Amino acid sequence: MYKRGKDIKKLIKVTDLLVENIKAGIAHHLLLPTKYCYIKIINMENIWDCHIEPDWLLLYYLDDEVLRLERTGTHSDLFK
C-alpha cells in the first residue's frame, strides 16, 4: 500500500493499538475504536478485518495466544 501513496503510519497506529490492548487483556470486541469498523470474517476462522481507511483494510488472525497480521489491501485486493 506504500506504493499506492498510503500513510504507513496509520497501519502502524492500528497494529500498535491491537498489541497494546491485547497485552492489557482487553476483550477482542473492544480492542479497536469503532471508527475502524472491525468484524470477524465469516468464511475464515479467527480472521478479522479492520478498516484503516474506507478502502484500505488489514486482515489479521487472533486467538487466545496468537496475533498474526495476515494481509493488507483494498476490498478488491483482498476479496476477489
Description of the structure:
This protein has 80 residues and is α+β, with helices and mostly antiparallel strands. The chain has a single domain, classed as RelE-like (YaeB-like fold). The chain has helices spanning 8-23, 75-78; strands spanning 39-40, 47-53, 56-62, 67-73. It has a 4-stranded antiparallel beta sheet with strand order 1-2-3-4. A hairpin with a 2-residue loop joins strand 2 and strand 3. The mean pLDDT is 88.
What layout of secondary structure does this protein have?
Blueprint: H1 8-23, E1 39-40, E2 47-53, E3 56-62, E4 67-73, H2 75-78
Antiparallel strand pairs: 1-2, 2-3, 3-4
Distance between the termini: 17 Å
Quickly count the domains.
Answer: 1
Multimerization status: single chain
Category from helices, strands and their pairing: alpha+beta
Number of helices: 2
Run of helices and strands = HEEEEH
Strand content: 25-35%
Helix share bin: 25-40%
Contiguous runs where pLDDT drops below 50 for at least 5 residues: none
